[in-house]
Amino acid sequence: MAGWVRTSEGESGDRSRPRGVTPSPERASSLPNSHVRGCHSAAGTDDHRDGGAQHERSGPAVSARVRLRPGRPRHPLLSALRTRQRRHGRVLRDHLVRTRFADRQAAEPLPVVVVRHASPLRRRLAGADPRLQETKIENLRLATASLDRLVLAPGETMSFWRRVGRPSGARGYREGLVLVGGRPGVGTGGGLCQLSNLLHWMALHTELEVTERHHHSVDAFPDDRRELPFGTGASVAFGLTDFRLRNPTDRPFQLEVRVGDVDLVGAIRTTEAPGVRFEVVELGHRFERDGDVVFRCNEVRRRRVDAATGAVLGEELLLRNRSRVAYPVDEAILAADAAPRSLA
């Protein structure tokens, strides 16, 4: 059975050296790496539904002062029209390619756990109102109810927003932390990226194919208790950016997600143990300065391993990240990262 990996919901990693994370017997898929600078919400602000791009750094000497500030809303009518146009465009494309969506939530779990994962619900976020973490938890409870025990039959696709729906106040969603134009802000339904981050990380360790995933383009908070490679989260914004998984195999897979007392917990199940597992590792993690702007960079690679023998069957580059950093980084870290080094 798969082991638990506990981590923050953000996307980042230990800056000091490359690191691997190896959950249980699994397998994975291809995924595009789209960079999104900011998205309109249904409420008409330029935001991400983001609990997942909230970072706090662990380790030495990183100043962590982050001010929350209101975003710059676009004209509500233009935002609503743009969101509606993109949503209708998606519907048309799905119809043309005859996408089959996963819509059945089973009463009973499938027998084999492929991967489990957990991320803390509450973290130290410098300058952020702690009440936003409590409202985020309420938002996550609403969203997980539509995804828990969801079965992806062979050939079916899971769409995050098709399952979760519009995160509006009328449906019970509260204001939470979001990214607004690359900066922390407040928006209805904030925090749902923690759920899409969890789903993405687990999917990397299964045979499910990631058919749509958008990268958080800004590293908004320093790390706090990070264990996963930087840049492996998945940004979602209703009507604009979705997160999707497709089951290309001949057997069903099932998602499990729920809000616990201290963690958002999840698992992916199937009907029989896979013959391979995947190890996801980070290489070349560093901060680098370009003029007045600091970027956080790395590569994320995945190794395919025979579950029975442990032999490495292959390796692929998943992601090459370069994200703008929105918090002060200690000059000693920048100097150390600027020194010549091997990528490995």
Task: Write up what this structure looks like.
There is one protein chain. With 344 residues, this protein is α+β, with helices and mostly antiparallel strands. It has one domain (19-273). The chain has helices spanning 76-96, 131-145, 160-164, 193-203, 331-338; strands at 19-21, 34-36, 47-48, 104-105, 112-120, 150-152, 157-159, 175-180, 183-188, 209-212, 214-216, 218-219, 244-246, 253-259, 263-270, 276-290, 293-306, 312-325. It has a five-stranded mixed sheet. Strand 14 and strand 15 (263-270) form a beta hairpin. The protein is globular and about 50 Å long. The model is unreliable at 1-71 (pLDDT under 50).
The rough form would be described as globular
Cα separation of the termini: 30 Å
Query: Radius of gyration in whole Å, from Cα?
Result: 19 Å
Largest sheet: 5 strands, mixed
Q: Whole-number average pLDDT? A: 79
Strand content: 25-35%
Count of discrete domains: 1
Extended strand count: 18
* Total of helices: 5
Strand order of the largest sheet: 1-16-17-18-12
Flag low-confidence runs.
1-71
Structure characteristics:
344 residues; alpha+beta; 5-stranded mixed sheet; 5-stranded antiparallel sheet; 5 helices; 17% helix; globular; disordered N terminus
